[in-house]
Amino acid sequence: MKGIYYHITQSVSEGKKSLAVLIDPDKMTVQNVPGFIENVNNSIITFIFVGGSTVETEATHILVSEIKKHTSLPVVLFPGDVTQISEAADALLFLSLISGDNPEYLIGKHIKAVPKLMHSDLETIPTGYILIENGKQTTVEKVTETKPIPRENKELIMHTSKAAELLGMQLIYLEAGSGALHPVPLETIRLVKQNLNIPLIVGGGIRSKQQLNNAFEAGADIVVIGTAFETNEAFFEELKP
Ligand code: 1GP
């Protein structure tokens, strides 16, 4: 069966750009899912990412199961923790936080996830996750106790991305952090994309159609937006096909 990663690489090879909405189980109630997903279905969004930093056990599974009832779009886990792995999803971004040096987020949580994953059919996509400084401290920084890469150090960000590719990772995610003051700089996206042979995801602090298009033009293959959809329902209107 052709999976989500195949779908992503096909889109990239056809020059198609993709938008993912990020749903945080801490902020979305099951009751609000039908209305929210209806907006998603009527927009240009093609992926639903689900994940958060401080989610209760089982909350992700309950939420993903509910989302799947209302859409045929792929649901991809973007987990902050092992408890957020759900068989109801279509794929899992198996994130390694390579901008920092906390072993728990480089390999520790991955080992703890193995008992859940080794007898599962969930597609697992190894992803190099790179936190980039955005002007304020983010939840990822606090939870992982790692420092982001300074936003002006685009060479280091590119070298980190390339190291992940050479290690065999299949996606790179450049993350400014949820609610970032400044999204990932466009020149950083450009430099990383020019030197990368695997798909590039960019997220954090993108709040307008203009910023979305700028990120696409700079080289992002998938852009992830969470906060703007949570706080401004009219944003969906701007993103009608
Ligand atoms: C966070 O990149 C995502 O992990 C999305 O960030 O909530 O700022 O859109 P926003």
Percent strand: 15-25%
Task: Indicate the CATH topology.
Answer: TIM Barrel
Q: In CATH, what is the class? A: Alpha Beta
Along the chain, the helix and strand elements come as HEHEHEEHEHHEHEHEHH
Q: Percent of residues in helical segments?
A: 25-40%
- Average pLDDT rating: 95
Number of helices: 10
Ligands, deduplicated: SN-glycerol-1-phosphate
Query: What's the number of domains?
Result: 1
Second rung of CATH, namely the architecture: Alpha-Beta Barrel
Describe this structure in words.
Helix 7 links the parallel strand 6 and strand 7 (about 200-205). The protein has one domain: FMN-linked oxidoreductases (TIM Barrel, Alpha-Beta Barrel). It is an alpha/beta fold. About 40% of the residues lie in helices and about 15% in strands. It binds SN-glycerol-1-phosphate (1GP). SN-glycerol-1-phosphate (1GP) binds near residues 178, 179, 203, 224 and 225.
Concise summary:
The chain is of the alpha/beta class.
Topology:
Layout lengths: L3 H10 L4 E6 L9 H9 L5 E4 L8 H12 L4 E3 L13 E7 L5 H15 L5 E9 L7 H6 L9 H13 L4 E5 L10 H9 L5 E4 L5 H10 L3 E4 L1 H5 L2 H5 L3
Quickly list its features.
39% helix, alpha/beta, 10 helices, TIM Barrel, binds SN-glycerol-1-phosphate, 17% strand, 8-stranded parallel β-barrel, single chain, 241 residues
